[in-house]
Design a protein that fits this description.
Length: 311
């Protein structure tokens, strides 16, 4: 899917491909791709986001360019996560997999904790449109020549729906039965190279976009460590927020108070200017071992943090 400096396209190298993969694995583990866990490709907005966003790393530039229906959001990403998780689970079972996948709408909604109400089914159309319409554009400078490549998150989609009359007035409604979508090469190649991480299933229960981004960042960078720290401004860039620092700090304080992230907590080191943000494990034994095993200053430092219980 990518190299260390954003996204490179390449040839598909999966040896097991059929015609169409049906997402029907019963027991699947939630998988996420490493790139979008690091770079905020998906919008944090719950409304229509038409802004072009740009991120730089060295001489590489990544742009996220929305279509007329708006940018793909962190909640739209659930479609990719679900399909990716199904493909990886099937591949691990030795089943043939393909870039084009068929998804039962009900299975997707229930599997990602969205519920099966009418609005949930209708939301699938918008999710597919935004995923297809959002363009990811990257450049590769070589001497005085710059190669720019643009591609979508999914190549195409097809929706199968039925119309029926409901209610006393016989209102005609359309209900999505299933849909197919085709992964883009960058998403597919990343899966085939296992450039992925396992997420806690509680990820789908996180209701705020910032909570989802903070959990992804914690999962990627804190990972199995007892704790990990990052400058608040760099974290804001990774989260993908344009809010002023003091407002972003307030957002972090809310997350600290709510303590809703699976497996991890957040703290603020207000002794730094600007603040450091500390991600740390909810495994108290693991945390204590790491703090006591380093030096006495580590425990004193940790006790001074603004965290759950004293925020």
């Amino acid at each position: 899917m990518v190299n260390q400096a954003f996204v490179n396209e390449g040839e598909i190298m999966d040896p097991m491909q059929g015609d169409l993969f049906i997402c029907d694995v019963a027991n699947w583990t939630v998988k996420d791709d490493l790139v979008s866990m690091d770079v905020p490709i998906f919008s944090l907005s719950k409304g229509k986001d038409s802004d072009i966003r740009q991120y730089k790393r060295g001489d590489r530039v990544l742009r996220v360019i929305p279509s007329g229906v708006g940018a793909a959001t962190v909640f739209d990403k659930d479609l990719l996560i679900y399909a990716m998780s199904q493909v990886i689970a099937a591949r691990n079972q030795g089943r043939p997999v393909t870039k084009e996948v068929e998804i039962n709408s009900y299975d997707f909604l229930i599997g990602t904790d969205r519920g099966d109400g009418r609005n949930s089914f209708e939301s699938i159309v918008g999710m597919l449109r935004r995923l297809k319409g959002t363009t990811i554009e990257t450049n590769v400078p070589t001497g005085n020549v710059i190669q720019t490549t643009g591609f979508s998150m999914i190549e195409k989609y097809t929706i199968l729906s039925e119309k029926k009359r409901v209610g006393k007035n016989g209102e005609e409604v359309s209900r999505i039965l299933s849909f197919t979508m085709t992964f883009s090469d960058w998403a597919w190649n990343g899966m085939m190279d296992y450039e992925i991480l396992t997420l806690h299933r509680g990820y789908f229960k996180l209701a705020k976009p910032i909570e989802r981004r903070l959990y992804e960042i914690a999962r990627k960078f804190c990972s199995d460590k007892a704790y990990w720290k990052i400058n608040i401004d760099l974290l804001a860039e990774k989260v993908g927020t344009s809010r002023q620092r003091f407002k972003f700090r307030d957002d972090l304080r809310d997350v600290i108070r709510n303590d809703c992230l699976p497996d991890y907590r957040i703290a603020l080191d207000v002794n730094k200017s600007p603040d450091d943000v500390v991600f740390y494990t909810k495994d108290s034994a693991k945390l204590a071992k790491a703090l006591l095993g380093s030096n006495s200053d580590a425990l004193i430092w940790f006790e001074s943090l603004l965290k759950k219980g004293n925020v």
